Amino acid sequence: MSQRVIVLGIDEAGYGPVLGPLVVSAVAFEVPAELVESSLWGVLRGSVSSAPKPRDRRVAICDSKKLYQRKEGISRLERSALASMLAWRDGAASVGELLGMLWPDGVKSCAAYPWYRELGMSLPLAADGGGVRIAASRLRLDAEAKGLSVAGLFCEPLLEGHYNRLVSNTRNKAVVLFGQVTRLIQRVADAFPGRELHIFVDRQGGRDYYGQLLMRAFEDRRLAVIEETETTSAYELRAEPAAWRVRFTVAGESKHLPVALASIVSKYVRELFMLAFNRYWQSHAPDVAATAGYYRDGMRFIEQIQQHMLRLGVERQQLVRMQ
Q: What average pLDDT does the segment 32-60 reach?
């Protein structure tokens, strides 16, 4: 029987906004070792497509920006995120349940934020539930036939106040993002102890060199530099019984299916947080239009809710992210 290894994709959503969380996610596949360098879009072409297509019952897995435009709604993004999750394990009936599956040690952090306390919204929000289940079953059966499986979905949301404390301590939001990436790598390593990991990460903020950061994060492993170029930075972290191979790639979501799926999960989770965020603030300020949290519109929103922040005792550093 072929050796089976863990292939992991990591990507983020919400690095730039002034409102809402930074969300970093990882998606793990268990695959035969000989398929590590293969395109999983090709291997799973019976159940997965690389772009959304009308009347295509496969799961669209691509850069989340191709699946979600605010004016078009969340349905396509949600279908891909929930179908992939159902291909892994039983689904979640609410936003809170979904977060509990993806981020089990962190959900309690939401209690510090009044706008994230009400997470009982039912899922799916917009996608057809029956269609999601059919797509998930198709993906799971196709993967099994090829000797693969969706092995795990993991999420590390960084909520606004927590984000500000970390950025204040490090004075560098790229370092904060990298810390979320290494937390996810460790979570996956803990979930699959002793397994060989092949980790693909979308390149972080223009950085070309990651060796020193990896050595500091994983001091019990020996680092070897495999490649450092304008497009790819690759490393091996060696320790018994199995090595980890980490590759940072420009436009990783277009080259590696697990990275694209991590992009989808991150974007979907961030949108769920923003739904709760907007519902809370609009319950106190119904005339204020919802926001996606990006700079210009986020600053408009902050200005319009100033009096409500004062009335509710909300401190700016708990709501507005440092830039």
A: 95
